[in-house]
Amino acid sequence: MPLQNLTVGRICLHEVHVRSDAGAVVQPTYGAGLLNLQGPALEAFKSRVIAAFRSNSQCMEMTIRAHGAGSVLASGVQLVSTSNQDFIVASAVFADALATAQTSRQIPGGLMVVFDGTVGHPATPFFGVMKAELHEGFIKTANLQATFVNDLFLSPKTKLYKIGLFVSDGAQPRPELPDGWSATVYDSAMTASHRDNAATYFYSGFLGLDIPENAAQQVRQFFEHTRAFILATNLPDEQKVDLYNGLYSYLKLDRGNTIQTSRFAEAFMDDEVSEQYLQHMRQERFPTGAIAKDLSEVDGSLRWRKLRFPRQITLTGPPDAIRDLVFFEVSNGEDGNPQTQITIRGRIEGQE
User: Fold this and answer.
1) Measuring CA to CA, which of 180, 200, 228, 237 is 20 to 30 A from 78?
2) Cα–Cα distance between 123 and 120 in angstroms, integer?
3) Other C-beta atoms lying within 10 Å of the C-beta of residue 212
4) What ranges make up the beta strands (E) of 208-323?
């Protein structure tokens, strides 16, 4: 989800604490004013948000489940139209909601960063809620000494933060919620082989969002649109075989629990083909963010790869075996007609 023409209006900080030894919610520490960021500081904040939601980041478009009174969405929609003073007070409800959603003492505290602004062409309103965990580090002093601090946050390398971004479509009059708003979540743990409780408490318990139920359909569309692109390219047949192998490997063998067009392109395509592919997927209106890797609708298609040749000759095998053991070389024969030389690493094990 690339963020174009992003402007940040107001920012307010509150601090959420770890639950008590008895497991009770500890009241957050509320900010007393807006965070005054200017110049390089504001640009640094914007750069963290933009980097998180680039198409190669760990972000996912979500389904909005909770949209009634008191939900994050309903509270945020009211927030974007408030005065600065009301913004400070109203944003505290997000800290309360996050503290409640953190049901375990194993979940660390952190800063609740609430911000709003506009994004896109034409510009439409958005609001964001970020949990930024505090971490340790050193600050260089003027005399080349160092000061140790334990309250750093939003460092670009650590990425100890999660963001929920809610963007309006700008429709007037505003439709009934949740229509007119989309939600995307950034979490650096999103592509781990297993979702941890932290990701769940944030996007589900706190934000009231769900992983799209149509994830299986989206994966099937990814598979079909990508195969159609490979088939339509003017690449040599050997490169097409490599791309097909890459597609099967990416879906079947990759251990991640999400898929994303930009990650597939980066792994298996050069720059020119990658740009053509990403443009093709945009034209197909396929999401640029990560989507859950539900293979239930393509599992049968991924079990076997089939390569067809003239006169009903077919080479069939598991995708990983074809990738590792079968090699192709296409050329023109003495008669000028194309021919394919197939080399299989291994001996014949049987015949029918």
Assistant:
1) 200
2) 5
3) 17
4) 209-210, 258-259, 291-292, 305-309, 313-317
**Residue 181 pairs with which residues in a beta bridge?**
168
- What is the rounded CA–CA span in Å between residue 315 and residue 319? 11
The Cα–Cα gap between 223 and 248 comes to 9
How far is the C-alpha of 19 from the C-alpha of 58, rounded, in Å? 27
In angstroms, the CA 30 to CA 252 distance is 47
190 CB neighbour count, 10 Å cutoff: 22
Give residue limits of the domains in the chain. 7-210, 214-352
pLDDT tens digits, the chain, 352 residues: what are they?
668 889 999 999 999 999 999 999 999 999 999 999 999 999 999 998 998 887 545 777 888 999 999 999 999 999 999 999 999 999 999 999 999 999 999 898 999 999 999 998 889 999 999 998 877 787 888 888 788 877 777 776 667 789 999 999 887 888 888 988 999 998 876 643 333 334 789 999 999 998 776 788 889 899 999 999 998 999 887 788 889 888 988 998 777 788 889 989 999 999 999 999 999 998 888 888 788 888 888 887 777 777 777 777 778 777 677 777 777 777 777 777 778 787 878 877 766 6
3-class state of residue 114 by DSSP: strand
